[in-house]
Amino acid sequence: MKHLHLVGLLLLSFPCLLLCAGIRREAEALVKWKASLASADESLEPWSLANSTSLCTWTHITCDLAGHITKLEFDLTNLSGTLDELDFSAFPHMEELIMFGNGLHGTVPAGIGNLMSLVELHISLNPYLTEIGNLTSLEALTITSVTLTGSIPPTIGMLTKLRPMMVDWNTQVGEGIPMEIGNMTELNTIYLRGNYLEGHLPGTISHLVKLQELYLSENQLGGHIFPELGNSSLLDTVKIAENNFSGLFPSSICVGGALRVVDAGYNGFIGIHHLTFQHCTTLQYVDFTANNIVAELRDCFTEHPGSLVSMAFSQNQMSGTLLTDRGEDFLCNRTSLNFLDLSSNALHGGLPKCFWDMQNLRFMDLSNNSFSGVVPFSMTCQDNLRYLLLASNQFTGTFPLGLKKCKTLFALDLGGNNFSGRIPSWVSMSLPELNFLRLSSNMFDGIIPHEIFQFQQLRVLDLSKNKLTGPIPDDFTNLTGMAQEQKNIAFIYPDRYLFRVRIQIIWKNVDYVYYLLIASMAGIDLSGNYLSQEIPKGITALIGLRYLNLSGNHLSGCIPEDIGNIVLLESLDLSRNQLSGKIPQSLAALKSISVLNFSSNRLSGRIPTGDQLRTLTNRSIYSNNPGLCGFPLEDCINSSTPAQTEKSLDEDREALWSYCFVAAGFIFGFWLYWGIFLSRSETWRCAFYQYVDNMQGKVTKKVYSCISRFWAGGSE
Ligand SMILES: *[C@@H]1O[C@H](CO)[C@@H](O)[C@H](O)[C@H]1NC(C)=O
Ligand SMILES: *[C@@H]1O[C@H](CO)[C@@H](O)[C@H](O)[C@H]1NC(C)=O
Ligand SMILES: *[C@@H]1O[C@H](CO)[C@@H](O)[C@H](O)[C@H]1NC(C)=O
Ligand SMILES: *[C@@H]1O[C@H](CO)[C@@H](O)[C@H](O)[C@H]1NC(C)=O
Ligand SMILES: *[C@@H]1O[C@H](CO)[C@@H](O)[C@H](O)[C@H]1NC(C)=O
Ligand SMILES: *[C@@H]1O[C@H](CO)[C@@H](O)[C@H](O)[C@H]1NC(C)=O
Ligand SMILES: *[C@@H]1O[C@H](CO)[C@@H](O)[C@H](O)[C@H]1NC(C)=O
Ligand SMILES: *[C@@H]1O[C@H](CO)[C@@H](O)[C@H](O)[C@H]1NC(C)=O
Ligand SMILES: *[C@@H]1O[C@H](CO)[C@@H](O)[C@H](O)[C@H]1NC(C)=O
Ligand SMILES: *[C@@H]1O[C@H](CO)[C@@H](O)[C@H](O)[C@H]1NC(C)=O
Ligand SMILES: *[C@@H]1O[C@H](CO)[C@@H](O)[C@H](O)[C@H]1NC(C)=O
Ligand SMILES: *[C@@H]1O[C@H](CO)[C@@H](O)[C@H](O)[C@H]1NC(C)=O
């Protein structure tokens, strides 16, 4: 028995001589490469020649049954160095090479072409693309890097077994897509997003009968899309946004019968054949945002109510109405539709009543068209409606009563229409989740209902340019959304439609299209109304506000003393009111203020000073007030310390009284005394003090110049 064992061992050891030499070469190649690294984390510790007999137990590698390395994987490992010293020819059995997020830099050496068995290559380093064509066994390829250079070589056509090809976000891959891509007949996925690819889409792509996903967004590809693109019966997704494609979008895109997603936004397409979508029964997501498409809206919808979930045709030249010639609405029986963006086109007509019944509708943007008429009434509002943007149309009538049941509404924009009547008091109760409310540039009148400040989540309230009267309501305790610093909204509401929501606000004097996605924003704009009385003091509790615009009203009284509490404030416009008294010293606490406007009021006294206020040097922001002084306007009489100023003011006052007392003192003093103490209105008292303040300022100035002339004369 023992002899038999010995014979067996001898028989076995002969192939081992060859086999073991191969394995030893693999171990040596790895150890040599390890030695070339500037640093490596502890996971590479077992890599040592002393351990070469147990190669298959080393970290980061996988072996086959014979003990050869089939997989080398550095995924999220902390290495520093290059691949230059890695001898790829030592790994004839390597099937997978995975190198992501590991700190290696430089290029993948040409020797990678020796990995004749390689089936999967996933790297975030720069390979010499020309060598990729040698890897003829390759079935999956991912290259992501920010510095990949060169072009896709024609030899890529040799990779006839490749299924997914993902070469995304390599900002320097230029030139065109080689026509040889048509030889890679196993391809099911092409990701070439975010490169610098130019030229036309090669027609040979239509040979890829197994193609399911084509992602070419964010390149510089141009020309027409060849009609056969749709021939693959497996084609599911075509994403070609942000290129320079032009011409008619091919009418045969849905011939294959499986197309689900088309994203062709931000190109130069000029039209869509009216039959294009008629056969697209499987289409779910359609995006043609920002092309130059001249078409009838109706031609962009298949007759099959089918599966359509989302369409975006914003920023084109679509015409037509939401109704057909027969007066029916062709949208409402698309029951799966949840996203509809038709903004910035030339659409007209009314909003059909049945839109309230679209169960899945979550986002509707009809802004910047010529829609008109009254928003139809409905007793119901579907639970899904989150975004309703009807701005810049010609809608009329009162605040739409149908909204009363829209409990889930998150953003409502009715701005720039011809809505009239009162703002209903139920808005905050009925729309508890509202974060953005824009009613600006309409004909709303009457008072602002005090319930408006019961929105707990509201971040942006824009009621500007209406005909609102009465005071600003003054209980802000429930306006918690503005009483704290806003976090980036995207983290709080993971909603893929948020990034499509654009709302126009005026911020820092600029008409600004504001994406909700970057919504750390919070602000109130009540400008351009007829609001009166004082600015409520409670507003200073809204410490999350980044802008406040009360310009162009009839507000009077003093600016709230604690205005400086709103520390995040970047833009404050109180111009064109009747505000009086001093500008509160707390203003100096506004560390972020970059746009400020107090012009055309009745303010007086010294402008507060502070580091940030010092940077606001435009004098016009204080202009047209009777008695303001200090930087950036003229100094307040003299620039000595406040204590001295007060003292000299006292002295001046004495001088004044001694001049004027005999003539007018008695009458004036009597009036002053009773004026102040009889008045119970704080507003009036504030204005009166300010009047006296002004008088005092003017007279002291005279006396001061008189005295200085006297001294100047005396010293001559
Ligand atoms: C051999 O590998 C083991 C772990 O597999 C490790 O603990 C040991 O330190 C290695 N030996 C040498 C000499 O590096
Ligand atoms: C990687 O290693 C370097 C030095 O060896 C070290 O400074 C760095 O913090 C490490 N990084 C991580 C993510 O562990
Ligand atoms: C890659 O293939 C080309 C021919 O296509 C050949 O000339 C070259 O030597 C090969 N490179 C390697 C490393 O095998
Ligand atoms: C690729 O296909 C073309 C035809 O489209 C053929 O002429 C060419 O020889 C093929 N190239 C390679 C490298 O196989
Ligand atoms: C694409 O399909 C159309 C009809 O659906 C057919 O006429 C044409 O020959 C096909 N083209 C290719 C390249 O398969
Ligand atoms: C886009 O295509 C048009 C022709 O359709 C061409 O005139 C223009 O130069 C192209 N723009 C870029 C950036 O390639
Ligand atoms: C859509 O609804 C209208 C009536 O509202 C109906 O006439 C039409 O046939 C419906 N379309 C489909 C495709 O069901
Ligand atoms: C409104 O649409 C026109 C073209 O229809 C466009 O030029 C304009 O920029 C759009 N305005 C906004 C605010 O989107
Ligand atoms: C707005 O509606 C009023 C009637 O409520 C009408 O008199 C006025 O002409 C409309 N304005 C515009 C710009 O459509
Ligand atoms: C604040 O909200 C609570 C709960 O919704 C309500 O009871 C209270 O009346 C509100 N306060 C004001 C001042 O609106
Ligand atoms: C305040 O609103 C008015 C319009 O009502 C606008 O002209 C002004 O630019 C706005 N101020 C700021 C600072 O944005
Ligand atoms: C301040 O507001 C007035 C009136 O609203 C305006 O005319 C002026 O341009 C504004 N100044 C600045 C610097 O924005």
UniProtKB/TrEMBL annotation:
Topology term for the membrane: Single-pass type I membrane protein
Gene3D superfamilies registered for this protein in UniProt: Ribonuclease Inhibitor
SMART domains according to UniProt: LRR_TYP
Localisation: Cell membrane
Signal sequence, renumbered to the chain: 1-20
Transmembrane segments: 656-676
Keywords noted in UniProt: Brassinosteroid signaling pathway, Cell membrane, Glycoprotein, Leucine-rich repeat, Membrane, Receptor, Repeat, Signal, Transmembrane, Transmembrane helix
InterPro entries in alphabetical order: Leu-rich_rpt (IPR001611), Leu-rich_rpt_typical-subtyp (IPR003591), LRR_dom_sf (IPR032675), LRR_N_plant-typ (IPR013210)
A GO biological-process term: plant organ development
Main location: membrane
Family as reported in the entry's similarity comment: Belongs to the RLP family.
Protein name per Swiss-Prot or TrEMBL: Leucine-rich repeat-containing N-terminal plant-type domain-containing protein
Species name: Triticum turgidum subsp. durum
